[in-house]
Amino acid sequence: MIIFDTHCDTLDLLKDTDNMYTCDTHYNFSKAANYDTHIQITDIWVDNAEHKPISRVDGLIDRFYEETKNVSVIKTAADLEKAKGVCVMLGIEGGEGIGGSIKRLYDLFSRGVRLVTLTWNHENEISGTAFENGGGLKPFGREAVREMENLGIMVDVSHLSDKGFYDVLEMTKKPFIASHSNSRKVCDIFRNLTDDMFLSLIKKGGVTGINLCPDFLGENPDIDTIVKHIEHFMSLGGEDNVGIGADFDGVPALPDGIRGTEDLYKIFDRLSSLNYSQELCEKIAYKNMMRVFSEVLPEK
Predict the structure, then answer these.
(1) 98 with 104: CB under 8 angstroms?
(2) How many angstroms separate the CA atoms of 260 and 133, rounded?
(3) Cα R_g (the chain), whole angstroms
């Protein structure tokens, strides 16, 4: 089968002696190779309360290219169309990695960054956050979002404040995603999407990636709990707007039945047992994300 997973933090966990094939993590290239094709957005997490954002991002971009010499790196819609085997795309989780500079945004694009999660948990030059119940997009945030659209960098609203979400919705011309966010109706936590947010995402043509973090799933999380979030989004008409954003290696635990990337197929086995068609399972597994990224990434 084919999987397109829009969020993991594996790169942040690598020790000097590790490599992306054998590292003892939720995601690695060996696990991804169990699938016919596995596309993974590999994020660089930035916390402006803990890191020096610019040096951290630059150093981990270097590490990304050291690790990915023997796998496919996706930078364009043409790359995505021919994706086969183990494939990766570079993202940044936390817009402070841009450093408040449009010139740096262009530099990051030239180095292959194709997704930016606008905030993590703390306010930055772009916007307030969901964690802090913060405000919306700032002037630089609006400028950055416009330039991301122009360049072909996916705008990611996971972690963004509710006000920031609606600001992005109002100003963008292209679809955007919530790379790793679930349903707030099913699990009432600030990091998840309200029904109105998801309906707005549908109208924009965007996609949300189902997050496997137990805190965002609900009590006693297991594969059926994951499916509850999918089913709720489906009940709102989200057939073309749900994908996978597992948050592997960014969470302290996983739901029962999921050890890591190697077990993602179990979600689709469960959906199939509930009479989800093969076509609908494929949409959730990869086609919805393929479609939205093909619309946003540079053509070639």
Answers:
(1) yes
(2) 31
(3) 17
Give helix then strand counts, H and E, for the chain: 13, 9
Classified as helix, coil or strand, 66 is: helix
Distances (CA, A) of 107 to 11, 69, 102, 104, 110: 20, 21, 9, 5, 5
Go through the domains of the chain in sequence order and give each one's CATH number. Answer: 2-296 (3.20.20.140)
Percentages (nearest 5) of helix, strand, coil residues in the chain? 40, 15, 40
Strands (E) in 201-253, as ranges, are 207-210, 242-244
Token couple for 51: 């890191």
For 262, counting Cβ atoms within 10 Å of its Cβ (0-12 exposed, 13-18 middle, 19+ buried), the class is middle
57-82 confidence digits (pLDDT tens): 999 999 999 999 999 999 999 999 99
DSSP-derived secondary structure for 91-160: EEESGGGGTT-HHHHHHHHHTTEEEEES-SSS--SS--BTTTT-----HHHHHHHHHHHHHT-EEE-TTB
pLDDT in tens, 263-280: 999 999 999 999 999 999
Least confident of 43-52, 125-134, 145-154: 43-52
Does residue 23 sit in helix, strand or coil? coil
Which DSSP category does 261 fall into? G
